[in-house]
Structures are given as structure tokens and as C-alpha cells.
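User: Some background: our group keeps a shared notebook of sequences we're curious about, and every so often someone picks one and asks for a predicted structure to add to the entry. Today it's my turn. The entry only has the sequence so far, pasted here. Could you supply the structure so I can complete it?
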Amino acid sequence: MNLASIIDPHPDDATALISRGRATTYGELREQVGRLRGGLIGLGIDPGDRIGIICANNWYFVTAYLAVLGAGAVAVPLNPLSPPRELERELAAVGARAMLVGPAGRATADGIDRSKLPVLEFVIHSEGVHGEGAILLDDLLTAAPLPVVEREPDDLAVLIFTSGTAGSPKAAMLSHGNLLANLEQTIALRGEGDATDVGFGVLPMFHIFGLNVVLGTALHAGASVLLVERFDPMSALEAIHKHGVTVLPGAPQMWAAWAAMPGLPEDSFATVKVATSGAAHLDPHVAETIRARFGLEVGEGYGLTEASPVVTASIGLPWRPGSVGAPVDGVEVRLVDAEGEDVLVGDPGEIWVQGPNVFQGYWNDAEATRACIDEDGWLRTGDIAMVDDEGFLFLVDRAKDLIIVSGFNVFPAEVEEVLLEMDGVAEVAVVGVPHPHTGEAVKAFVVVEPGHSLEEDSVIEFAAQRLARYKCPQKVNFVDELPQNLSGKVLRRALR
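Assistant: Of course. Here's the predicted structure to add to the notebook entry:
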């Protein structure tokens, strides 16, 4: 098997992608992916090699992703807007042998210090050629197509950086079997895949929701994906109408933007058959507003990178704002108390997950893997939920200190580690605070070393040079001391 083969069964003339105003059929996509696969293998890329993909949501990403998988290598999707230092850290962590750079990632990739990446041999650019080992993508596309390299279900397919269920960001290992299982679980929610669907692909493909739920399910079903590189509420509505979008997944901030826009026609979403929200909690008031104004029921689900990602969904169930639905077929869910016992209906408990979609562990981190997957294969998510008498699941809290900004995970420890490198910062604690547009925003509390003077803007700028924008503090408070408990641990709840 090989996950890249999901594009093989579909008619040559069926539209697979719509990107930058151009449609690509499945026949064309297979030809392009086959040639790029041949080009990668011709370079000497071997099965198991890690390949970074630094690209926005467009044709370049999809072709690179499928070609890397098809060559038997491991795809490592990365945020093209991350600062060079962050990309260096991620590429080094997985020992990337090559990276494919799309137009949106060019400036960042040019700033990467190659001396910090001793095993990186090849840099493949979508345009222009820069530096030692740089190759033009168009040149690889002239290679003769080569067949897909067979892999086992447990063979590694993708590494995605996540804050994990505890600790600092690490690379989650997702196998071909993990990803395919979740594609089939997701498609089964509607009975079977609908090849006439047009999906709205605005969720970033370096995020597991965009990669497997949006892109993967569409390609597996033989449907089309409209790839959108940046979200603008009005432009998005125009695109939905123009292309007849039928499947509309998004993060809560997307739905909140439309709910708050005055004067939109009642039939703005007339073509949409399925509307979903994920990656963070959707305010029930937003869901109710969308339904009242447009007649569209937005279903919420729950998942995490470590589960490839879908665990629960609301598709096919009675509409219940505030609920994340019920487990998808093939996934078992337990709600467990502090002693490891199942809780009663109506009581809160930590979500434990088991199924073929549960990941293989964290890259080169056996200790973190053991901490989140027990001997029986149960994934401890760190999220707290309760279930009602009808089997509907409701998220109530997070056991971890994760901050979710526009659907993206930010772990405080990562931001704190960076800020502590700044001259004059003695102590720092980071928390999430409510934000009207992004759900949460990062706020830092800084204790300044004696004899130093710091400004809020300088702290924010220091972070912006080292972290992706969504991870950077939006506000900095200077304090004399951080509140701590008896064991010396910072009381983040008190800071919030």
C-alpha cells in the first residue's frame, strides 16, 4: 500500500484541484505527481528519508506531498510563514534530507542557515534557484514517471509538529495506515465518498485538519478541492458561489467572521451540503447565528494530530450546538478519572482514544510517547469532556496549558523558552487570553532582571524574529514576581 495511491482510481477528466485560478484534473495530477516522484527518486531520495514541504495551500503543496509519499519518503509539512530559525529547528529535529519550497516559503527558506542542517542535501524551489544544492521543481517534472513505492501500513508517512498532549512541540509520527484509516472513517460519516463534491481548502495543509480531513478525504473520494492560500470573508463567499462549494470545513474564527458580517444574502451558502468546524471550540452562539441567518447547520467535531486527527464528529447526528458529536466508526473513546477508572454519564473525565488512526508516537522521543500511549494502545489526550445520556460528547476543559490561536496549537513552554533568551528577562510565564478574532491570544508576563529596562514592543519583536506569528505574544505585562504554588510551579490560572 501507499497513501499516495488514493488519487489512482478516479477518472482522468475529473477535476482534482482548483488552485490559483487553474483546474487540474486527476489525469494531469497523476502525470505530474508521477514525474516529480521520478525526479525525487532520481536525486537519490530513499524510502524513509524526511522531506520538508514549505508551501501554502496550492498546487505546489499537493503535488509535492503526493510525490514525497509515493517515493516512499516521509513528508514533513511546515508553516511557510514561520521565521527561518523555527524552520531550522524543525528541519534539524527530523533530520530532513531535502526540502521543497513553494512561492510563499521562498523568503523564509532563503534565510535558513544551512550550516545548522548538516544532513540537508537538496533544496527544491518552485521558482528561481538559490544556494548550494538548490534545484528547480520544473526540472524534476521533466523526469520519467516512476511507479509508487510500496509501503507497509505501519511505515511512516508524515511527521507533523504538534504541542502534543504534554511538553514542548514535537513531531508526531503518522503512518500510511493511520492516515488511510482516518480518511475511511471520515468518509463513512456520509455513507460513502461523493465524487461530485467541491471542498473548500483554506485550512493550512501543514495542519493535520487541512492535510488529512480536507485534502485527503477529497482526493480519496475523487472529489475536487478549491485551494485557498489566505482567508478573506468576502472573497471566500465569492469563491464558494463561483465554484459551487459543497463541503465547507473551517476553524471557529471563519464562522465567527461570517456571523458578524452584516448584509450578507440569506443564500450565501446555498450550495453547501456539509459544514463543519474544528481545531478549537465553536461558540454555540456563533453556530446558532449562522443557522438563523443562512439556514446552515455547522457541525462540530473533536480530534488531535495524534489521532490523524478525527475522533468524534456531528455529521449524521441531530444538530446539537456545543457538542462535538460522537466517536467515528472504528474509534473507541473512554472518559477516565484521575485513578484511571471510567467516569459515570454526566461526569467529566479525560478523553482516552484507541483505534487504527492513533499515531505511532513522537519522533525520537520514547519517553513522551510512553507518557501519552499506555501499554494497551490508549491515547491519553489531556482533554476533559463529559457525555450525556444520548451519547453526545461535550468538551469542558483542557488538562494541558495549551493555547489555541485561530485553531493552531501554541504551547507556553516553547514561547517562554524563546523569551528567556532575551537579555534582561529573568522570568517569564505565558498564558492564553480571550481574543475576539482568534479565539485566544498569547500573553506574556515578564520579570525583568535588576538593572535592565525593557519595552513591550521590543519583547514582541524579539519573539517575532524567532517564532511563527500566531505564537508571538500580543500583549506583555511586566511584573515584580510570578505567582507560584508551594512546589514552585507557576500558577497560570492566577495570571489569566
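Suggested note for the entry: The radius of gyration is 22 Å. The first helix runs from residue 26 to 43.
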